[in-house]
Amino acid sequence: MRIAFHGAARTVTGSKHLITLQNDTQLLLDCGMFQGLSDELTDSLNSSFGFEADKVSYLLLSHAHIDHSGLIPKLVKEGFKGKIICTAATRDLAMLLLQDSADIQRSENQQHRTQRGKQDEVLEPLYTMEDVSKTAELFEVICFEEWVQLQEGVEVYYTNTGHIIGSAAITIRVTEEGQTKTLHFSGDVGRYRDVLLCPPQPFPKADFIIIESTYGNSLHENQFSTTDQLMKWIKHTCVEKQGKLIIPAFSVGRTQELLYFLNQLSLEKRLPEIPVIVDSPLSYETTQVVKKYPALFNERLQKVLEIDDDPFSFPGMRFTRHVEESMQLEHFHDPCIIIAASGMADAGRIRHHIKNNVEFERNTILLVGYCSPSSLGGQLIHGDKQVKINGQEYNVHAEIGVMRSMSAHGDADDLARYLSCQEAASVTTVFLVHGEYDVQQDFQKKLMLKGYEQVLIPEMHAVCGLNEIVAETA
């Protein structure tokens, strides 16, 4: 058995890890799209998997976020015909996100052709809506906490990670030549005191662990002060400055959290009577999916549901469903809150809102999650005084705010707690993925101090023979 790391290796995007068994069965953990890097690097990484799609036997999908699912239709386009194993909520969300991704690629392709002319080479979409339709036929739903046999000698077990609705960690039990080894892939680990979701579950004893490390060297702010922090930004921007509060937010997870906090402020009669616009058809659709799975909500939210049948809606809030509605917001100058995707502001309608509002001091752009340094959101957090949007430079005069309490990723303490169900001395190797290299190096030291003897940080496309590791450490 060997594993190759074809994404989220010393970076936080493009999750993709390929396990090859002795009988040539291939298990792919996630098939994510690279996002938020430079345009040239992103295009290069997304254009080639580093492996042959038609040789993959099973795709084990941890959750629906595009950096974990976004290249599945390309995998299908290039010949993958196996099963896509995931939870029901992940299937529902992934189909929405993949359809949206195909539509964005089609739109961007048309825009580039218009701008450059027919004589210039234009990058073709990675996949089309037809490829997404073919992908839909391959999903097979799995329940949490049930061992499922994929084939003789290969079993999988999914546990809830509390990252987004349906998110799972994946444990694989493989028997080869009479020996059984267990490998665990964390996917993205949520927070133990998440506002909406149940905490991450313990997972079976594992010989090898692949764990994300996004916040492996830092601690989050107390998220239960988020409501008050958000209220301060609303009052400061919309009441005192009479401006617009522009919030980039991922359609899945972050948008629902924001709506929940705003609903709380509304119930407490603290929210000013200003419009709250969620400018994203995708956010509307994903919010409906989230509502379908109340059993995955935590106890606190279950109690809220006893008195409020829709914790994501309140007076003054509306979703925009059509392009015309979105375009009209450019001419709306009264104080308001606009929430739009994407969270890193590297695609979607949020770029238009930032473009239209970033040059005015009365407005605030509030970043509420991780942004890669090269993304538009990352540039704003860094303090860049000029940003380029759709090929045009804009001066940054709007106030830039950051709220670090809303991350859906566990911090260093959460990750340590997540691993606490294991005996460090019994784990042969821990592989760190989905993190910036300097963060991973810090997390590596922390884990070794906790007794994990071998903690590796694989490079992109690195291949590791797990049997050789066992032999070396025996």
Automatic annotation (TrEMBL):
InterPro entries: Beta_Casp, MBL, Metallo-B-lactamas, RibonucZ/Hydroxyglut_hydro, RMMBL. The keyword Hydrolase applies. Residues 13-228 form the Metallo-beta-lactamase domain. Keywords: Hydrolase. GO terms for molecular function: hydrolase activity; RNA endonuclease activity. Gene3D superfamilies: 3.40.50.10890, Ribonuclease Z/Hydroxyacylglutathione hydrolase-like. Residues 255-380 form the Beta-Casp domain. Pfam families: Beta-Casp (PF10996), Lactamase_B (PF00753), RMMBL (PF07521). This is MBL fold metallo-hydrolase. It comes from Ilyomonas limi.
